[in-house]
Specification:
Rossmann fold; alpha/beta; six-stranded mixed sheet
Amino acid sequence: MSAKKILLLAGDYAEDYETMVPFQMMLMVGHKVDAVCPDKKAGETIITAIHDFEGDQTYSEKRGHYFTLNATFKDVNPEEYDALILPGGRAPEYVRLNKRALEIVKHFMDQNKPVAAICHGPQLLAAATNLKGRKMTSYPAVGPDLINVGADYQYVDVDDVVVDGNLVTSPAWPGHPKWMAAFLKVLGTNIEL
């Protein structure tokens, strides 16, 4: 297996599990992951949010952990990366307002590089690129946005995954096992047990 260089694009109040778990999993299998946030530098932190499913009509939200960024957003050259991870939470809602962030996301999709997006992460995809006909999923509340931009929205269980070529999406953090397994397959990463 050759190690891949992966960009994780997050922001304040990105979902805790959806930021930390993929970051750690990709490191665990030997890939290099640069975690960035617009207008922040390596060594600075973002605060995460914990979204939980407690029987209410939508998720609950609690303050999460601090997550230390290990790369500087303004230094990102998307040409240098093999893949992109877009965590969910509240961050995509405001990160999609950053023109450079959208250019970065568009690069990965235009170049057909592997992209893993979860929960609200597809909001960045909808703002950055043409999703017409792309099979994908997200947190259900983001579904109408994806349908409105022409995506072939898939209603799947919260722990499921949808793969369409380079694009790997899941509704929320309960989908991590299938989401990350599918992303590793798209990356060409084989793990022998």
